Fold this protein.
Amino acid sequence: MLTLGGKKVLLGISGSIAAYKSALLVRSLIKKGAEVKVVLTPSATDFVTATTLSTLSKNPVSSSFTEIKDGQDNSEWNNHVELSLWADLIIIAPATSNTISSMASARCDNLLLACYLSAKCPVYVAPSMDLDMYKHPSNQENLNKLKSFGNIILESENGDLASGLKGKGRMMEPENIIKYLIKDLNNEHLLKGKSILISAGPTYEKIDPVRFIGNFSSGKMGFALAEVAANLGANVTLISGPTSLKILNQSINLINVVSANEMYNEILKYFFNVEIFISAAAVADFVPTKSYKSKIKKTENLNEISLKKNIDILHNLGKIKKNQFLFGFALETNDGEKNAFKKLVSKNLDAIFLNILNEKQNIFNSDYNQGKYITRKKSVSFELATKTDLSLKLFNEIIEDL
Ligand code: CTP
């Protein structure tokens, strides 16, 4: 049975009515074998008492930077750095709009925020608020900011809210938090020791020194895959065409290229030392037959540019691969599944992801994607999700199929 055995959990509780559920969360964490310490924000003490939580956690509960001992005036400092370093993981449940906003902007006016800002371990955040407050762009922006810091959001659930309204915003139920944690902590090392090479972004093929043929790819899918893989313990090299994206996990070896030929040459330097190659790049299919050395002047009356087929990187890799797991992406407008499967076979791939275009979401530059993961044996559908969430699901499939 999977447990949280031996995990040291620092539970931060902020001032929401859902704080009463945190007592159940403490009990469930302990039942699963975790050791728990609790930090309350000052307003959380209006909803739940330190006595309840220290009885359940069998540890003292802190709510301020200093503690008055035995009613005497010899107050003791609660060392937030020590508390954070003690923890294997921090859970902030419930996390109010106020606490989330402070976390996103490095405000540090209570002990919980000081612990959060000093944390080196994974941080799980369970938002709890009313539906409209939850939907407000400022809250959504703050949650995205926390995600970009690598914090894990325990998505709020739908249902009855304390206001009497119904909708999304209530804190994830303690039993679901526990299930999520166990699954996530097991996944933590899913790719430990694996070497993964990923291509991302567009390629630019020069017409002259100032003009090129390219495409609208933002590189977001490839970058999300790289971040997730690195967070799951993989050794990641990311070879990217021109994009404005930045990597967050500094362990990623990022190599910038411009054209398909440059991309191919860089890929070849790493290809034979990796176990998985993911081709998320939108390689330009056509390249000008001639690249002008100097800028073409308007007076030259250029009416057409002659093009030839560009190198098909993935096709070439399919021919020379040894044991590498080759994973490609397919963009189709007609007969999606059939054409994606054809590409899987013709490029000698192990798996391919068929991007399914969504009327509301433009796939280019979107943070979301949906589609089908297809191998010779199966086809698994994935509903619209953030590229980060989708990446995690895709790695679960890849590991199963490796
Ligand atoms: N790919 C590649 N080199 C190319 C074209 C595509 O490595 N010159 C890779 C892409 O990174 C992707 C897969 O091949 O993983 C399929 O790309 P896609 O654009 O869907 O297909 P194409 O092979 O270009 O075929 P078509 O555009 O005709 O559908």
Q: What stands out?
A: DSSP finds 13 helices and 22 strands in the chain. The first helix runs from residue 19 to 31. The two ends are 25 Å apart (CA to CA).
